Amino acid sequence: MRNDGIDAVDTRLGARLAELRTEHGYSLGELADRSGVSRSTLSRAERAEISPTASLLNRLCAVYGRTMSQLLSEVEAEPAPVVRTADQPVWQDQASGFVRRSVSPPHAALRGELVEGCLTAGADIAYDRPPVAGLEQHIWVLEGALDVTAQDTEHRLGAGDCLRMRVWGPTRFRCAAPEGVRYLLAVVRP
Q1: What is the pLDDT along the chain (190 residues), one digit of tens a residue?
Q2: Helix 39-46 vs helix 28-35: angle between axes, to the nearest 10 degrees?
Q3: Domain ranges, ordered by start, for the chain
Q4: 81-188 maps to which CATH number?
Q5: Distance between CA 94 and CA 88 in Å, rounded?
Q6: tRNA-binding as a keyword (predicted)?
Q7: What is the pTM of this model?
Q8: How far is it, in rounded angstroms, from Cα 46 to Cα 37?
Q9: Is residue 148 a contact partner of residue 164, using CB atoms and an 8 Å limit?
């Protein structure tokens, strides 16, 4: 997990975001228009002056047509076929109370990945669009309770419950348990 300051992952992430913008030929203004994120926020994220939130990364992933795991894996070393618990990358959005562990090593040639998500009590994350339209997700709650809203339908999930969905529009993940929630998210690109 990261501390309160900007760490090496944020520095590499900022550099990768700048590379992606250049690869796509976008100015900061064009990327701001496409993503709905202000130019100043984009610039600060690219220079690693701020640690981007899950919502901001989701918006950028939607513009670039990749999942958050793909983006985060691009700033990590080439993944091995086995990743030990201590070596699984962890990313934290302190503003929302979201901690994300990349359980399986994502690889560009593979379509599926496993992610462990943890939300603190009362945490509420809204994504305005999927990073990739038609993304398949399986959400299996391991501990606590989670409210997931997709396509204007809310699903209350308790420990052991699993929701399978295709994501086409906005989604919302809200911790419905006073002790927080821990869940496994299986993501399959279309």
Answers
A1: 334 445 777 888 898 999 999 999 999 999 999 999 999 999 999 999 998 888 899 999 999 988 888 888 777 655 567 888 998 889 899 889 999 998 987 666 678 889 999 999 999 999 998 888 899 999 999 999 999 999 899 999 999 999 999 999 999 999 989 999 999 999 998 8
A2: 110
A3: 3-52, 81-188
A4: 2.60.120.10
A5: 19
A6: no
A7: 0.67
A8: 13
A9: no
- Give the amino acid at 99: V
Output the 3-class SS for the chain.
Answer: CCCCCCCHHHHHHHHHHHHHHHHCCCCHHHHHHHHCCCHHHHHHHHCCCCCCCHHHHHHHHHHHCCCHHHHHHCCCCCCCCCCCHHHCCEEEECCCCEEEEECCCCCCCCCEEEEEEEECCCCEEEECCCCCCCEEEEEEEEECEEEEEECCEEEEEECCCEEEEEECCCEEEEECCCCCEEEEEEEECC
Residue at 23: amino acid letter: E
- Does domain 3-52 sit in CATH 1.10.3720.10? no
